[in-house]
From TrEMBL:
It comes from Candidatus Magasanikbacteria bacterium GW2011_GWA2_56_11. Pathway: Cell wall biogenesis; peptidoglycan biosynthesis. GO terms for biological process: cell division; cell wall organization; peptidoglycan biosynthetic process; regulation of cell shape; UDP-N-acetylgalactosamine biosynthetic process. InterPro entries: Enolpyruvate_Tfrase_dom, Enolpyruvate_Tfrase_sf, MurA_subfamily, RNA3'P_cycl/enolpyr_Trfase_a/b, UDP_GlcNAc_COvinyl_MurA. GO terms for molecular function: UDP-N-acetylglucosamine 1-carboxyvinyltransferase activity. Belongs to the EPSP synthase family. MurA subfamily. Phosphoenolpyruvate binds at residues 22-23. UDP-N-acetyl-alpha-D-glucosamine binds at residues 94, 314, 336. It holds the Pfam family EPSP_synthase. Its EC number is 2.5.1.7. This is UDP-N-acetylglucosamine 1-carboxyvinyltransferase.
């Protein structure tokens, strides 16, 4: 087990380059199973989740050449050696469920276990199974936690009862090789879904409606290999904006995709953050005057997570830390995961004034000075929020169980040290 030791109160400033989109590459890796030719990725983030996914690929027979120092990855699976995911691998992370669609499409069958991942509330698989059954798959429970999918897939009208990102991606991966025409209605449209569509299109898939809630796929006989860049991670960019704002430094984030940041920046502006676009870069000026812009709106409507293009749930924990440093009261409504908000109670131990109304809603009353204290990361996003709080706080903060944070932020301590933070990792 590792921990971060943070001496807070130092402004973070300088230049940082975002990592490749975590939620994109974790779906792109299983997508390589859809071709017998090599697929090469550029700008792959050196995060632990990538290592886990590549381990699963090797168990399935893939040849993997990964250079974390350069971000270059080549995956080649001329033949699939297994049609199932082992229990230990499946339960290491949520994204293990992304092998269902590709294995079903290539092998005609797949067995697996219910996936693991962050403990932020119920994350059932019903939308995945329902979507794949609409393509013709037969589903069967093998035990209370294991299951199988099998059958010949054909194009179909697929309706998702919720715009689940991973269910959309699983159905998409299954449909690109299914004969006939598939439409996915109520599809998710997040940037990582778009990136997966763009990758598949380069490989020869026929997909229309990318970026909308209705995807149209015409099945093709085969896909080819390709070289694919992984787009920048907008959650990583949002994280760096928060770190700069709560510590008072001036930061330039290089090579962002401005269109991916619209909803995040809109809600950040309600808390007083101002940013400037400089070509492909984003500048966060120093000494932001963090104040709730519209107090009536913030108390009654506030910041709430919704499917894209609205505010992403992955930014909720960091936005709460940001609000502790903004003058005024703000309601936060996490509509997706009832376990995501409980981390906020420990911010109160640092001096925050947060009312936990119920599992989905908290009210943050700012601005409150924070004092360092020992914390333990319960999941990836809450763990990073604790790091942000520690950087803004006076005195020493320790954040334990940082293995959760490593899943989305590679070499975090060295990155932050270059920006002026006093942070070290201790085993």
């Amino acid at each position: 087990m590792s921990k971060f030791i943070i001496e807070g109160g130092r402004p973070l400033g300088g230049v940082v380059k975002p990592i490749g989109n975590k939620n994109a590459i974790l779906k792109m890796i299983p997508a390589t199973l859809l071709t017998a030719e090599p697929v090469t990725f550029e700008n792959v983030p050196a995060i632990s989740d990538v290592t886990v996914m590549l381990g699963i690929m090797k168990e399935l027979g893939a040849k993997v050449d990964y250079r974390p120092e350069t971000g270059r990855l080549t995956v080649h699976t001329p033949a699939v050696s297994a049609a199932g995911i082992e229990r230990e691998a499946a339960q290491k992370m949520r994204a293990s469920n992304m092998f269902l669609g590709p294995l079903l499409a290539r092998q005609g069958q797949v067995t697996s276990f219910l996936p693991g991942g962050d403990k932020i509330g119920p994350r059932e698989m019903t939308a995945h199974f329902d979507g794949l059954r609409q393509l013709g798959a037969k589903f069967r429970w093998l035990s209370f936690e294991s299951f199988s999918l099998s059958g010949k897939l054909r194009g179909a009208e697929v309706f998702l009862y919720e715009p689940s990102v991973t269910a959309t991606e699983n159905v998409l991966l299954a449909a690109v090789l299914a004969p006939g025409r598939t439409t996915i209605t109520n599809a998710a449209s997040e940037p990582h879904v778009q990136a997966l569509c763009e990758m598949l299109s380069v490989m020869g898939a026929d997909i229309k409606g990318v970026g909308t809630n209705r995807l149209e796929i015409r099945g093709v006989a085969e896909l080819r290999g390709a070289t694919v860049p992984v787009p920048p991670d907008y959650v990583y960019v949002g994280t760096m904006i928060v770190l700069s704002a709560v510590t008072g430094g001036e930061l330039t984030v290089k090579d962002v995709r401005h269109e991916d940041l619209k909803s995040i920046l809109y809600f950040f502006r309600q808390l007083g953050i101002r940013t400037q676009a400089d070509g492909a870069d984003l500048v966060v000026p120093k000494r932001q005057r963090l104040t709730v812009e519209n107090q009536a709106w913030a108390r009654t409507k506030g910041i709430y997570s919704q499917p894209w293009p609205c505010f992403p749930t992955d930014m909720m924990s960091l936005a709460i830390v940001l609000a502790t440093q903004a003058k005024g009261a703000t309601l936060f409504f996490e509509k997706m995961y009832p376990g995501r908000m409980f981390f906020a109670d420990y911010l109160n131990g640092m001096g925050a004034n947060i009312i936990i109304a119920d599992p989905h809603r908290v009210v943050v009353n700012g601005r409150t000075p924070l004092e360092g204290r020992p914390l333990q990361a319960p999941d990836l996003r809450a763990g990073m929020a604790y790091v942000a709080a520690g950087l803004a706080a006076a005195g020493r903060t320790t954040v334990e169980s940082v293995e959760h944070i490593d899943r989305g932020y590679p070499h975090l301590e060295s990155t932050l040290q270059k920006l002026g933070a006093q942070i070290t990792r201790s085993e």
